[in-house]
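Task 17 of the worksheet. Students: predict the tertiary structure of the chain below and write it out as structure tokens. Keep your answer in the requested format; marks are given for formatting as well as content.
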Amino acid sequence: MIESENLNQEEIIEELCLCNGLSYEMVRQEGSDTSKLEMFFSGYPRIVGLSLFPNLTSLTIVAQDIKEISGLETCLQLKELWITECCIEKIEGLQECRNLEKLYLYFNKISKIENLEKLIKLKVLWLNHNTIKNIEGLQTLKNLKDLNLAGNLINSIGRCLDPNEQLERLNLSGNQICCFKELTNLTRLPCLKDLCLNDPQYKTNPVCLLCNYSIHILYHLPCLQRFDTLDVSAKQIKELADTTAMKKIMYYNMRIKTVQRHLSEDLEKLNDQKCKLQKLPEERIKLFSFVKKTLERELAELKCLGKGHSDGSNNSKVTDPETSKSSETVTGEPSLQQKILTKLNALNERVTFWNKKLDEIEAIYHTEVKQKKKSHGLLIPLLLTELETVGNFHFEEGTQSDDWFNFCYELILSRFCAWDFRIYGITGVKVKRVIKVNNRILRLKFEEKFQKFLENEDMHDSESHRRMLECLFYVFDPEVTVKKEHLLQILEKGFKESETSKLPLKKEAVILCNSLSISECPRIEFLQQKHKDEKKHSLKRELFRHGILLITKVFLGQSVQAHEKESVSQSNYPLVDSVFIPQKYLLNSVMEQRNCDCSARQYKWFVFDHDLVLPEYVVEFEYMTMESKKKSEGSVFSKDLKFDDEVIKMEPRIKAQPKLISLDEKTILSLAKTSVYSHIVYNLEYLDASHNHVITLEGFKGLMKLKHLDLSWNQLKKSGDEINTLCKHTASLLTLNIQHNPWQKPATLRRTVIGRLKTLTHLNGIFISEEEATAAMKFIAGTRMTQLSLLRHSSTKEERPRILSIWPSAKILTQISKLGAHLHPNGNWYLKITALNLDGQHLFKITNLEKLENLKWASFSNNNLTKMEGLESCINLEELILDGNCISKIEGISKMTKLTRLSINNNLLTGLEQHTFDNMLHLHSLSLENNRITSLSGLQKSFTLVELYISNNYIAVNQEIYNLKGLCNLVILDTCGNIIVWNQENYRLFVIFHLPELKALDGIPIEPPEAESAKDLFGGRLTSDMIAEQQGHSNFTQMQELNWTSSYIRTVDLIPVDQFRNVCNVNLQNNNLTSFSGLIYLPNVKVLCLNYNHIESITPRLKPQTHLTNRQLLYQKVPSSGYGQQGISKTNRDTMSTENLPPIMHSLEVLHLGYNGICNLIQLQLNRLRNLKFLFLQGNEISEVEGLDNLVVLKELVVDHNRIRALNDSAFAKPSSLLALHLEENRLRELGKLQSLVKLEKLFLGYNKIQDITELEKLDVISSLRELTVYGNPVCRKMLHRHMLIFRLPNLQMLDKIPVNSDDREKAEFHLAELQAKKNSLIPVTNFPMDGRSFGQVKTPPIKITNLILPGGLSHYMGSDITLSPEVEVSDRKNRNAGILTNNPRSIHAEIAFQPSRGISISTSLLSHQNIVSPTAQIYQSNQDEKRISGSNFLRSNRM
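Model answer:
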């Protein structure tokens, strides 16, 4: 046999030499020269013959039938070893290959990484395509750079790779890693540059199927150059991952803060309820205490009097009782002293009774608080898990609008049997909360197993599959309280086989049930027994009143009923997936007469495959008991109040005394009946200030002999300040009572007081033992910051770990440091500290930080700090947490310019000092929740802020939101719980509108429809807050002008109106107003400019009445439709609707409504402005002048550039005081209906359609007219309009912007006389009667034209003796027409035709009665044949 093996070995060596080109015969002599050997596919079944090659450095063996590694003992120089595609099952035989640098063992059957400890030079290790389950045995491979474990069975990473800090390339593809938490372990590999988890050559890791997989890896491993065979070295890729991760952290930070806020609000409600319940007992105790102390004082006075009387007499003490007894016998009544003692005993009983009531209320309160904290305590870990898994573990709270919530509710009710719970006094169950859990990792496993089962089973009926899916309750161990850690582990990782319990069945199967009684009754019985054994006297029903159910989705597969005598295990039921036991066979089931058949449907299930049980819903419920229907334990009955009244009425009665509002020096002197105040204070030994409203002890000074002090039942809060005061001014204090005060830190109050006030013997009526005093002194000593505490709670990490967490950096870093070595105080140890976490150390002051110059992250939460001091030298701080202290002012941090995160929640801050945050150019997160802040003005320059949490403060006015408008980077804001939430109508939309960059408000994301609603509601709204923001103050009483143009204003809402009482000028030009809106309430506005708006009416138009039919609505819009009312004209209807409206804006005198698109003056309701003097309506679409009848004091009316064709009867029906009327640029053809304008002095008719000169003659009725313009009308192209108007209007002083003088009048008379003479030569003069009279011949005086003034540019039409003057410019008020009037070559006067003549004397004769036209019209007609300058020679400039 040995010869055969030797022969085979020789053959193998010969084959080895042959394959590598070596001579078998010469190998023993030449083998030392060989450094590399290779064997592929066959011919080398064992590793033999390598001793012939002592200098071998590289060995490659591929696809051989080798089952073990051996024969390498002599290969001391071996650096590279390939044994691949073989049958190796164990790593061994490499101990002597200590120079090995590369080891390739892929495609073998290796199940464990071992025996590599001595290969310290190893750089490359490939173990892919094996059956390895755990990463281990690599601790000594410090130089390892390339590790390939792809294609194995690895499901966790852990900390096994932490020693391999030089690792650069890692391939874990094709394994069973399914959790993001495992991947975060790779962050401790600083040199890792190439990571592969999803190599196309291997199967996919389950973790690669999760959402945000790439983002998670790239964020946690920023140094990666290649990821999953792809190049990820681009900077943009890393920035995208960082940005996404930061958004995730911000989002979940917001959600966690929202949960914490909800908890605070719920606790506050519970506290309010407790205070309401305690109010009556406290009042009773206060009353009884007052009566009791008064009686005690009277009793002391009686004893003093009795003692003085006995001292003055010669009788012995023995005779006193006899004397008193005899006196009582004589009188037949007890003495006053005895009555006082009797009443004191009764008072003590009542005080004891009411104290018991207070304790009962307090006990109920603490129970409710504990339950609330427990309920909310589950949500925060769920959110943290959701963040860590980047949303792959997701949960949501259900409401009644969710179908799945109602499903769970109905499921629980359907599986609750009142018969099973009757022995516990339970009558029903109430669902408090349902949480839906969606674990993508577990769901993928469940679906994969379920699909495999369907593929393996020959089942084609979908109904049969559906029957195997069931919703069951998970059965918790009844002897173990359901803790959130255990519940979270199940929700995150599922039902692991490693789960331990007292029940051995849980190792084999997951225990479930379909009945509430099976899952809950064992728990209730265990708690009752435990309560009985401990002999406690707490509320019995509170033990089990609240409970938690875990509803799972289960695939039962093949199931059978359990055998009675066999234990439930996989070995006993190898061919089934689940086993069930009916309730009647359970040990704890009670077999008795029932009136229901629920037990027949109740089963307990055992499912062997843990992956087929998917947790889906967590249900918090409460049992309804008979006691819950009764009155609560803290209730008070009327008979108790009757007992109180009886005790109070007992003899002796107490006389009422006046109340003291304050205890000042004058009051004390009057009560003490002395004049020296210092003697009283210095010698005072006993002071009772209980049952008052004392809020501070600042007035306690000089009470050095005070021994007994009672401060119970007051409003003291600041424990640190008050204890400091007592330490300073009460050095001899022996007894102190500070109960029933709203102290801020009640948990440590007693220890703090005892440790600080060392002379105390009693605190709150309880004796202070030596042990308690010693413990208090030790506690006080531990509240000081020492070198030891700094070293114990610090870290020296230079960078914050890249983990998805919202916890403070100082907390994260110090927790990591606890796992490693502590810092030792050698050299400059203080310069190495970068993180400091001193949360919950009961600190009263921050000290000894002067040398920590490199401190970056610090947390001092849950201490007793009252000031922000001791941080001045920490100028490199990036994160500072001061939550849960007693700080009242932000100070000492203005030099921390690198600060990025600041949190001062749950303190006593009242404001934000100006310029505190101005230099913090990197501050992006600020949290100031649960303080007393009233203003946000100090944040106006915090432009880098991204997150601001300011909930539960005292912010009340809208203007504070305006302080944040400049923070363009702010995306998360929480102001919930402030007064503004209730004061501001539509508060949420208001904030969204004014801070358009926000993405989330009060913990709720802002959706696009919500932003649109905010724009619709608050867009274009002029409010008092906007004005205050612009002015920088809210004192509007001194404001006289309001100028707000071009701001898209739609409504005006100035509240309170009384503050704007001095505003007299308002300019809201170029906005979007449709009415005067809130301006009608301003009492003293005189000038109102609303040009370029969309004014339709003074007041907002009413919406159409909903009760009208469609036909009536159509008629309101289109009167010609034939529907609705008939026979009433539109004008009459409008008049009827506005004539009875009351007048408004009594001070308004000037109103500008130009360019508003107005077409109907009646709908405008201008008649209500009774004191209006100047009205400007230019540039509208008005076609009729109407609705101005009541404007009796109107002086000037401007309706230029409208669509007026004629003046109707109602335009100026009443005599008017109008002095100026502007009608230019309209479509006027007629000039009638002006007779009522008896006071009109200025009339502007330029650029209309007046063609007939007879229309101009109608102006004769306005005898007061002083200025007139008619240029731009067709009639101005004729010759005589100017002469005629000058002649007919004797008071005219200005015509077409040219003054009218006496020479003009003479010329006009002469010209008309000349024309009349020519007319007479054509028309015979006859006498005819007119108006009952007869015309006589009239002799006209001679007319002589001496001068004619024309515009420049027309002298070529006239002779050299004609003097021309330049045209008069148009006034500024007509600036819209100025360019047309001054620059156009066709001037108004150029349309006048001339016929110069001199020295001609013409006598005019009477006109013939046969002519039906006026004399001027006849002259006009006869002049058509005369030579004149044609108007067609000039450019037409009529704008109409």
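Marker's comment: The mean pLDDT is 80. The chain is about 30% helix and 10% strand.
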